[in-house]
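The instructor's notes for this session suggest beginning with a concrete chain rather than abstract definitions. Hand out the sequence below and ask the class to guess, before any prediction is shown, which regions might be ordered.
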Amino acid sequence: MSATSDAYRIEPVTPTVKDYLRLRQQAGLSPFSEEAANRGLAGSIFAVSLMQGEEIVGMGRIIGDGGCFYQVTDIAVLPDHQGKGLGKRIMAALTDYMKANLPATAYVSLIADVPANKLYEQFGFAETAPRSVGMAMTIGSR
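After discussion, reveal the predicted structure:
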């Protein structure tokens, strides 16, 4: 199959735990245990899988409380497929879902790695500093 963007399709499917862990690891995202991934994926509000043929080569998810607060997370594209606008396609699918299904007052956030923040700006996300600052904690590091 060719490496053009036409060789890819977005499907509104949550990745399997195995694919989720593989994509995160190969895309350079922080690792999770199988148990954590199992729990987390079950709580997805919406997810997409980027497919090339029958292989999942990217993903993105929306998590949240279903009313007030949502977070875009797990935007990942395998390294061999990066630089082709595929992250943008994943974000477009998530944004389309949010505009069609989330309450108008929903607060949607994300934590952006640099330089991916430039991608998210294209979809209306803006840095919140200095009014607010993103913070994080890993339970195992306390």
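Then share the key points. The first strand starts at residue 8 and ends at 11. The chain has a mean pLDDT of 92.
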